[in-house]
Amino acid sequence: MQLRTQILSVFIPLIVVPILILGVISLDKLQSNAKERLLSQLSAETQKVGLQSRAQIHSIEKDLEILSTFGVVERYLLTDDEESRYTVLLPSLLKLFRIFQETHSHYYEIKVLLNDGYEDARAALPGIENATDDESESPIFIALSTSQNPKLTQFINNPDTHTLALVAGKRMALIDRRSDPLSADKGRIGSKLPDEYRNTLQQQAGSAVVLLTNDHEKEVYLTYTTVQNRLHIIGQLDAEEVSSSGYSLTQAVLIILLISVVVTASLAYFTLNRMLIHPIRALGNAVKDLQYGEFQRKIEIQTKNELGQLARAFEDMGDKLQNSHNRIHALAYFDELTKLPNRSMFKGELQRALAYCQRHELKFGLMFIDVDNFKRVNDLLGHQGGDQLLITVAERLRASLRTEDLVASTRGERAADLV
């Protein structure tokens, strides 16, 4: 296995694994925060709707109380003479209702119900059709009939418009209160809720958000706020919706993690390749060059770290090996005193010259020069004087020959010329 592969197999997991662990932890935290944020929004919206509902209920109850105190209303309800009621008082009553609707445009229908549920008087905005005059089966009439409280406000599905409506009613006694048939047990809170919702809310009344499974095997989050004793505002959010909200977040985090891993691995690869693998390879090539006698190779490592210092040490070693090589070569093939090629080099050059001339049928000249009475010079002038004589003779011989000729020192005072 190459060094690059070994290093990457060690360092990339060390970099990638912590990133993945951090990403998983961050993802779990983000999903938890997203869920908490959704449930908090659900609770806040429920509370907001509850506050608005309470404000609307307070306003409609106040308006209903004001409307019920008008003299024409009381006279209409207390008049036994039907002819007088419908011919004289009814137009005035309807006029009052219309004026009230003009000043309160959100009230699109105002009516008077008799004890049996018959709709005795009705004022509605244009376009609001009356489904029936018999309101004995309507939720608001049933609620008023069964409640001990003479005033009741309730959200119902209006049969005239088939939309959700906030309806306020007030039970008004006629002459004989004892004959008033509107009496019943108090209704139970939450009776209109699905059983699984009502039971859970009753068991966990103090919880802000409740998780339960309905009859359709679907998990839902519920939050609620009490508007009145008989009215709860219920906020519902499917658990699947809460989970799906985290899917896009999960995908985004996974994509970011994948990009981070790829970018980190790429940066690690290029960084390691530039800072470690390339210098080591350059050093390896320098070692190979040393094996083949290239001692002065320039190593392309410009860093000042340990690898750069090692490269400079290799270059210094190459220079020293080159100097040593040159010195050994000089000792092996040149005379140390006269600096002329020695006997060994001369023999090699002579053999090459013979072979070349034989192949090309050429001739060459060979001269042997001997310094006579050299021993006398040594005896008279000493070895230093003899050495100086040999150096002078060598210089004159080199100066006398051509560049392509060879003069060599074969033995002390003897020289040979190859021309």
Nutshell version of this structure?
The chain is α+β, with helices and mostly antiparallel strands and 419 residues long. It contains 9 helices and 10 strands. The chain has helices spanning 3-68, 71-78, 82-103, 139-146, 195-203, 239-291, 306-333, 343-360, 374-400; strands at 109-113, 119-124, 151-158, 163-170, 210-213, 219-228, 231-238, 366-370, 406-411, 414-418.
Ends: how far apart?
A: 59 Å
Helix content: 55-70%
Mean pLDDT: 76
The oligomeric status of these chains comes to single chain
Major sheet attributes = 3 strands, antiparallel
Strand order, biggest sheet? 5-6-7
The 3D shape can be described as rod-shaped
Structure notes:
By secondary structure, the protein is α+β, with helices and mostly antiparallel strands. Among the domains are: 69-184; 337-418, Reverse transcriptase/Diguanylate cyclase domain (Alpha-Beta Plaits, 2-Layer Sandwich), CATH 3.30.70.270. Helix content is 57%, strand content 16%. It has helices at residues 3-68, 71-78, 82-103, 139-146, 195-203, 239-291, 306-333, 343-360, 374-400; strands spanning 109-113, 119-124, 151-158, 163-170, 210-213, 219-228, 231-238, 366-370, 406-411, 414-418. Strands 5-6-7 form a 3-stranded antiparallel beta sheet. Helix 2 (71-78) runs antiparallel to helix 3 and helix 6 (239-291) runs parallel beside helix 7 (306-333). The protein is rod-shaped, with a radius of gyration of 58 Å.
